[in-house]
Amino acid sequence: MSAGMEIAAIGLRAQQQALDSIAGNVTNINTPTYKRSDLRFSELLVTPSSGGNDGISAVSVSTRPAVDQQGQLQATGNSLDLAINGNGFIELMGSGGRTMLWRGGTLQVQDDGTLATSSGYQLKASVTVPKGASNLTINPDGKVYATSSGSAAPTQIGQINLVDMSGSAAIQRLDGGIYQVTDGSQLSEAAPGEDNLGNLVQGEQEQSNVDLNTEMVNLLISQRAYAASAQVVQAADQLYSLANSIRR
């Protein structure tokens, strides 16, 4: 493939990835706790394998969930719904010792009384609700209370802390609003409201941070860039057809 065709094809592939990312954001605009994907372009210089000195400019495309952008909180009336107002994540117990993070959602009380996400991941805080307890309360500072049977006063049964990532930590989105942190990433832990971390909000859910106006603007930019790359392919094809006809 000629250099002109190859560069245009690189542009087409990059803009196709951008369009896919925008489509994913728009599709999840009403998905609770969803964080929009930010697309990042960076330039690469690929040296031909033949050993030539001329390199071909290429584009590296990567996506990262915009976890540092807060979504609006919406009251649900469900005491098992939990949200974070501000920075931070709730740490979960992943299989095989993996570090899993959660921005909140719906909790469930498992058969053994432990608090877990709706998808079954237990909180690393290991909060256990006594059998028969009622009036589960989670304070903004992470203290968890419940009223045991036969007792009128609530008792503290646990503490949910938040963790924050360093700026260089790599994060991968999984299903159900769960995120996985790569090995070696540094996490700092503190009680909600401390060290620039947010507070917990019971009975509410964080909504998607997708802004439709922003996505539509990005869509127009990507469509025009895609069309420009397609025009380059067409122009290069016409030039090569002309060159071939001259040879004959």
What can be said about this structure in brief?
The chain has helices at 3-27, 212-247; strands spanning 37-46, 56-65, 73-75, 81-85, 90-93, 99-102, 104-109, 115-117, 134-138, 143-147, 155-159, 162-165, 171-173, 178-181, 187-190, 199-202, 204-206.
Question: What does this protein structure show overall?
Answer:
The chain is of the alpha+beta class. Helix content is 25%, strand content 33%. The chain has a four-stranded antiparallel sheet with strand order 8-7-4-16, with no helix packed on it. A hairpin with a 4-residue loop joins strand 13 (171-173) and strand 14 (178-181). Helix 1 packs antiparallel against helix 2 (212-247). It is elongated and about 95 Å long. The model has no long low-confidence stretch (mean pLDDT 84).
The SSE order reads HEEEEEEEEEEEEEEEEEH
Shape: elongated
Query: What's the number of helices?
Result: 2
- Mean pLDDT score, rounded? 84
Structural class: alpha+beta
Q: Main sheet? A: 4 strands, antiparallel
List how many beta strands DSSP finds: 17
Question: What distance separates the N and C termini?
Answer: 21 Å
Biggest sheet strand line-up: 8-7-4-16
Strand content: 25-35%
CA-atom Rg in angstroms = 25 Å
* Low-pLDDT regions: none
**In percent, how helical is the residue content?**
10-25%
How is this fold's topology laid out?
Layout: H1 3-27, E1 37-46, E2 56-65, E3 73-75, E4 81-85, E5 90-93, E6 99-102, E7 104-109, E8 115-117, E9 134-138, E10 143-147, E11 155-159, E12 162-165, E13 171-173, E14 178-181, E15 187-190, E16 199-202, E17 204-206, H2 212-247
Antiparallel strand pairs: 1-2, 3-17, 4-7, 4-16, 5-6, 6-14, 7-8, 9-10, 10-11, 12-15, 13-14
Helix pairs in contact: 1-2
